[in-house]
Amino acid sequence: MPWRETRKQMGGWPSCFGLRGEETEQVWRKRGRDSDTKPPKKPSKSRRKRIQFAENEEDDEALKMSTTGTLKPSSSELDLDRPNIEDYLPSGSSIQQEPDGKLRLRDLLDISPTLTEAAGAIVDDSFTRCFKSNSPEPWNWNIYLFPLWCFGVVFRYFILFPLRVIVLTLGWIIFLSSYIPVHFLLKGHEKLRRKLERLLVELICSFFVASWTGVVKYHGPRPSMRPNQVFVANHTSMIDFIILEQMTAFSVIMQKHAGWVGLLQSTILESVGCIWFNRTESKDREIVARKLREHVQGADNPLLIFPEGTCVNNHYTVMFKKGAFELGCSVCPIAIKYNKIFVDAFWNSRKQSFTKHLLQLMTSWAVVCDVWYLEPQNLKPGETPIEFAERVRDIISARAGLKKVPWDGYLKHSRPSPKHRERKQQSFADSVLRRLEEK
Amino acid sequence: MGSASSMLTQYDIEEVQEHCNNLFSQQEIVSLYQRFCQLDRNSKGFISADEFLSVPEFAMNPLSQRLLKMADGLNFKDFVAFLSAFSTKASLQQKIELIFKVYDTDGNGKVSFNDILQVLRDLSGSFMSDEQREKVLIQVLGEAGYTRESCLMLDDFIKVFGSSGVNMEVEVPVD
Fold it and tell me: Is the pTM of this model over 0.80?
């Protein structure tokens, strides 16, 4: 087994995969409440200041993970990126920086640490940075580049775009004319029908990819069709799914969308077997968990899950939801990295609809990306699902050169739960009461 | 400087710089403007409370509501002036003034026992009872020479904080 032999860096990747260089951005760090280091008068010279920690809705496990320190990185490179969660336990008041000493009026009145945190969040925060799309930098700023750029626009919109539309239409015609007969005529022969339908789904995905002139480089062994495995990948846009589906007919778990996307989802994706969920319903979670488990044990095509739960701008990864990691099967990570020189494939769902996003892709030069299929991971003895999820996130982030942020992607749509604030309040209250006792 | 343009001219930058008493450099003002435009999603010229709260780090802060009252609806110039107390160049006096403003919600220049109690309530939440908070406050006020009925003014705050300084600085990321 080639995997097992070269268990060196990066949690046992074969060294042939190589390592992506670290990006130059610094990860913000916040000073922890070490009692032996005085808080600096001037801020440190490094530009970035902090990462705030907000756990998953699955609360205490995440905190336990940090305080017991059982997450051991398998190489020094991973150390740099992992936020030291001990640092971010709430240090909401100056009282904590002088753990001994009587409580004085000044200590109570001094709300400067809390205010500084708030102002720091207003000035810059790691969560908003995850969803910032590249502002298209105009390179047509002078007299000889401008005509070139104009020519490029004409070429893209009036030559490439119609060609691509033709290719896509052709693809749809071929697909539908094969899919519909197969679907209805082979009703009796389930296995054959399913096999053909899956091939056809792979085909239409290839046509999609061709319609954006997709240049996709796949690294690593192709996914094998066997039970008891689940694939996870980082999420940048809905086209992630199409790019992966082109190679393997994964079954997928998705949010049901409206419009033509929803129509596609309910007709064609049924053939590869899909699970629908509704983000806003909390009861939904148990139903979905059950369906996931059933699929993993029963079906013959593996499930593809995007544990981030939302699209991120391909420079960062947000926290992974643990749902995919507690199914009792092996998890195969996939890392996807887009080359932004050609087009920014990040789908900023707050800014544009999916149709506009697709049109933007179809009028760009190309969609270039790398896909790495990484070594399957299993739950280690004594590891919780959240630790497992973080470990896999480390692997994917390191491979694709992404920064990790300790935020839950769903915060895009909702406010943080009050328990984060309560934790800070509790820490403050405990400190005040404790110091009151000291005479 | 209306809401439409996303480019600042040199005049605009100088105007803002003057308004914040030169506490931010021109580069920092440009960065702050980019951040302002990022938070102000529909370019209305100010950041609404909802948009502030969409920053999870801010929403988790116990004093967020108080700051929101002060920062909600500010245009860019006033936004920079508001943040200027957090600049590395701001004086101790300016920082203490901001802290005082946070306590003095009705803006009458006096911070009463109840005002301090309110802030304490925000900071400690349900983890201290009202009696405990009052008891602590009366005790430390007494030791500093004040009573429950005293109203603290800005000068009192300055005296209490003394010369040890207040560590309240935020670095503006400059690209």
Answer: no
